[in-house]
Design brief:
Helix 1 packs across helix 12. The protein contains twelve helices and nine strands. It starts with 20 loop residues before the first helix and ends in a 9-residue tail after the last helix. The strands form two sheets. A five-stranded parallel sheet has the order 7-6-5-8-9. Strands 2-1-3-4 form a four-stranded parallel sheet, with helices on both faces. It has two domains: about 150 residues, Rossmann fold; about 150 residues, Rossmann fold (3-Layer(aba) Sandwich), CATH 3.40.50. The chain is an alpha/beta fold. The mean pLDDT is about 90.
Amino acid sequence: MGKNNVSLRGKNILGLESFSPEEISLVLETAQEMKNIIHRDIKKVPTLRGKSVVNLFYEPSTRTRTSFELAGKYLGADVINMTASTSSVVKGESLRDTLLTIEAMGVDAIIMRHKAEGAAEYATKVVEPVILNAGDGAHAHPTQGLLDLFTIMQYKKKFQGLKAVILGDVLHSRVARSDIWGMRKMGMEVHLAGPKTLMPRFLFEEPGIYIHDRIEEALENADVINCLRIQLERQKAGLFPSTREYARIFGLNDARLALAKKDVLVMHPGPMNKGLEISPYVAYGAHSAIQEQVQNGVAIRMALLILVLTGGKNIEANS
């Protein structure tokens, strides 16, 4: 299905579970056009001139917040950054009142990261501007899932029939959930591996999803590996014995990488704990697309802003 058959205009971007394969394809096609703009000497286009976007972040972020900010600015929008630590939140202002205040200023889109699952969906019930979820607790991180798919398409040229392996703390990972939704919708087979304490039990019966106790078994003939960041507070909670034990049993190193296909693609959402979930050799090796993911994140977020705010018509004509 081509671009003319699908529109995301006015759609709240909450999670990939609500996307159709055609909508995902539309975002990826548009992101390729955006990547061409990023590679120009002069990156500014006036497509979103007159539009205003607010980044509302209740949790720390480097890649997501910066790439959303650049995405808006490259497209000519006015972008304002708000963090909880420097806003009236520290004075006790509720999420609802913060959202209503932002809406009253006449903004067109709110990009929101919050520690509570469902916070972005709640925002859609409170205010009119389109909401883009930049991560809500352990629930979803749709733009990361889309940029991962965009990276896979860039290197593999297809999705159907690919074997993807997601390693690490799947239970607490919003990235893993978005990847699983996106990869399954696009016809990929998904294999999960990590400590049993960090595996969600509810996934066992899902078609096309396989859970492994041993990382070596999961990695055999893998086309794509996504290595999740180990959140060190999990170790303090007793969910795995020690960081040294984790690296020994579940870390992605060169020996384990050799079990995958020779042209395997390695990804990581960042920031990395090098030497823990991934070795420096793998992180910076020939199979790694980790830095490419960062650039692809800007292209995906540009694509989403254009699609939800304008429908994506005449992108190049406006540039």
